[in-house]
Write a structure and sequence with these properties.
Blueprint (H helix, E strand, L loop, with lengths): L8 E2 L7 E2 H13 L19 H7 L2 H17 L4 E3 L8 E5 L2 E3 L6 E3 L16 H10 L3 H113 L1 E2 L6 E2 L1
Antiparallel strand pairs: 1-2, 3-4, 4-5, 5-6, 7-8
Length: 265
């Protein structure tokens, strides 16, 4: 319900404008609550999803790091062939191979059903000794060939993940470049707005100074006119007194004409 300038408003690409502080608070709150998959426009009637570039620009680095991490977790959760390594202190992504996975970081190989060390397709409910005995009993060429095939599949899967990682990093790089360009455009627009506001303030200040100067000149002219009128009144008064004095002198020193009765010498 506050007034804000339009040049400080942001939107999700749908035309619904919000001030930057409100949008930043809205996005940060959604990320802190873990709602990162498709953060929608704050307008409840709008279904437009906030672009990642806007999220990156509006929130802090720490909040964006959480946003990026939660997006990755959500993506991994939906992938049937990727698991997090259960090895403590690692938690890297591991590629699934049938019912086992090998962590590309620490090399730990585990069962995707029970998250325990890989037990060569034996029952997860068996004890370690029973699993060991089952593995020994099936240690023949078929098992050896299968293991070799699994290793080959693991290797190809790891290569595919690495290729996806490179593609993902390239996508991130392009998005970061877009963000930098957007920030540069925003900074240029901000500087242009500041220069325009400074120019407007300068014109207003000059106009005000000109009006004040004209007002002072009018006051000086008015004072001069008042002084001129005062001096004119004094001169007229002095002239009237001199005329009265002259008339009195004439009346005193002359005799009136017998005909017109006017004073004559």
């Amino acid at each position: 319900m506050d007034n804000h300038p339009l040049n400080g408003a942001v939107e999700c690409g749908c035309g619904h404008l919000f001030c930057a502080d409100c949008m930043a608070g809205y996005l940060s709150n959604a990320i802190s609550e873990g709602n990162v998959e498709g953060i929608k426009c704050p307008d409840q009637s709008c279904q437009t999803v906030a672009p990642e570039a806007l999220v990156r620009y509006m929130v802090s680095d720490a909040v964006y790091a959480r946003y990026d991490y939660l997006l990755l977790v959500a993506a991994v959760r939906d992938m049937l062939d990727v698991y997090y390594c259960p090895n403590q202190g690692c938690m890297s992504l591991a590629v699934v191979d049938i019912n086992s996975a090998t962590c590309p970081k620490c090399g730990f190989r585990f069962c995707t059903n029970c998250n325990k060390p890989y037990h060569n397709n034996t029952d997860c409910d068996l004890t370690e000794q029973e699993q060991h005995n089952a593995i020994i009993s099936h240690n023949d060429r078929i098992i050896v060939g299968r293991i070799a095939n699994e290793d080959n599949l693991n290797h190809r899967a790891i290569e595919a993940i690495e290729a996806e990682d490179r593609q993902w990093l390239e996508t991130i790089r392009r998005e970061q470049e877009e963000i930098r360009r957007a920030e540069q455009l925003y900074e240029e627009q901000r500087r242009a707005d500041e220069e325009r506001r400074a120019e407007e303030e300068r014109r207003v200040r000059e106009q005000r100074e000109r009006e004040e100067r004209e007002q002072r000149e009018r006051e000086i002219v008015a004072q001069q006119e008042a002084e001129r009128q005062r001096l004119e009144r004094e001169r007229q008064e002095e002239r009237r007194k001199q005329e009265l004095k002259s008339d009195a002198m004439v009346n005193k020193t002359t005799q009136p004409c017998p005909g017109c009765k006017r004073p004559i010498e």
